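Students often ask why we bother encoding 3D structure as a string. The short answer is that it lets us treat folding as translation between two languages. Here is a chain of 332 residues written in the first language.
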Amino acid sequence: MKTFIAIKKGNTRDSFLTQENLGLLRSFGEIREAEHLAEDSIALSIGNSEVYMTCWGSPRLSRKILDAAPNLVLLAHLGGTVAPYVSDEVWRRGIKVISGNEFLAVSTAEGALAYILAVQRDIPRYSTDLKEKRIWKKPGAQSFSLIGKTVGVVSYGAVAKNLVRMLQPFGVKILVYDIVSLPEVEKVKYGIEQVPLDTLFSVSDIVSLHTPLTPATRRLIGKDLLGKMKPGALFVNTARGEVIDQSALEEVLADRKIRAVLDVFEKEPPPSECRLYTLPNVMMMPHMAGPTSDLRPKIAAALIRECHDYIDLGSPLRHEIKKPQAENMSEH
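And here it is in the second language, the structure alphabet:
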């Protein structure tokens, strides 16, 4: 197996491609690595590679690169969405595509659940009060449970499916909005009720957003929907910041009617003048819902073995992303 690594050198690359994983790659064949990530540079150095390996920020597998790589048969993306890395030419030439999307979906769902529990129990505030201010809880101090709540899930993709599964022990009522009708067996298995988007925002105690960013979903969530949320309801975004009208979200949150956990933003990091920094009813995270640091080497190892099994042993792909799925993934 001949692999071309088109990943910028640094912490992100090293968190996936550990020395152990690079050794695994070498045990399966030849490695080439981009010295520069410019399209022309890659086209000059990719040679007879069979696998084009990418991660966040890698160059798209373009016609020019493909023209220079006649033996290429597989794009292996260590992240989730492949939309920024494929081109029409990839599908036209029959290049197969795999990614860590399924692995990332589990990790991101776990992150979303952790955020929900943290805010329901008000963990950030009580921990800060005790550690930094030496303030013990006051009489009447409150926190809230997840048990028995109504949780609205916006878009039923891979992350949402894992979150719904993880929510089962909490006895929640699950509402789902999606443009596609959910399979009846899925609804029965997890007790899902599929509802219109405005209904979901109106009746949910917790709304968790999992909509991919596409031209059709940009600013899908605006002031009208956010304004329908119940007093004290919690809005969680682990999808993409641009799916929300952030100015409208800031305005609604400033009224202190609802709470929010935001893992993603319109601009990352948010500029220093961003209003969200000043709002006590907002928990902000620097895009960390998934994948966690300890999972990254495992994701890379699994995909490296999958490449080897496909290229050298003729085994079927286990994490293939086909064109229809790729077209519904986030654009970044």
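Translate back mentally: The chain has a mean pLDDT of 97. Keep this in mind for the problem set.
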